[in-house]
Amino acid sequence: MNFKVFGVLALAAMITIPAIAADDAKEKKKKKGNKGQANAASQVLKQLKDIGLSDEQIAKVKELGKDAAAKMKKIKDDAGITLELTKKRQEVAKAMADSEKKGAELAAAINKEAGFSEAHSKALKLVNVVRMDFNKSVVALLDDGQKEKLPARMKRFAGGKNGKKKGGKGEKKKPAPAAK
User: Fold this and answer.
1) What are the Cα distances from residue 4, in Å, to 7, 10, 11, 15, 16?
2) What mean pLDDT value characterizes the chain?
3) Angle at 80 (CA atoms; ends 31, 122), nearest 5 degrees
């Protein structure tokens, strides 16, 4: 009789363990699905991990990130940009990475190939403006020593001159060589 009870318990365990494991897999999949829409702050904090942010700075970056993420989500939702559409655009962008086209021409080609409408393209530009403003706000929180340690990718948000001269209205141009 003990063998019958043991057999029933073993059978019950064999049935329930895979069911529990399947539930855990579903939970992990749900969490992983949201990973693609990571908070803007977490991405920036990863980039800034080596510059020695204070706890107060980290808290402020997270707060700014929540605001930026909410704005970006609203812009995307209003324009009808879905996760599937974003993934398709990423795939097209990878495929066209070696293209001869550059800059705005490449972006336009990617958007066309991915099936983005003009409204979607405008929304992406607005999202990029929000992201740039967020990054500038984060860099503004840093002291001079931290700004010196910024990764190259973030230095463009620090302002100032990076050794590049841009031709503007007020700058003097070199005179043309005199004809002899």
Assistant:
1) 5, 10, 10, 17, 18
2) 78
3) 115
Residues 6+ apart with CB under 8 A from 155: 162
What 3-state class would DSSP assign to 36?
coil
- Tokens coding 33: 């699905």
Residue (of 162, 149, 146, 84) closest to 120 by Cα position: 84
* Residue in this structure with the two tokens 């655009």, named with its chain if needed: 89
157: Cβ–Cβ under 8 A, 6 or more apart, which residues? 132, 135, 136, 138, 139
Calculate mean pLDDT across residues 12-23: 68
Q: Given the structure tokens 């190939």, which residue do they identify?
A: 113
- DSSP readout, 134-157? HHHHHHHTS-HHHHHT--HHHHTT
Number of residues that this document lists for the chain:
180
What distance lies between CA 167 and its chain's CA centroid?
A: 31
8 Å CB contact between 86 and 33: no
- For the record, the structure tokens of 101 come out as 């086209």
In sequence order, the 6+-apart residues with CB closer than 8 A to the CB of 171 are 165
Confidence of residue 102 (pLDDT cuts 50, 70, 90): confident
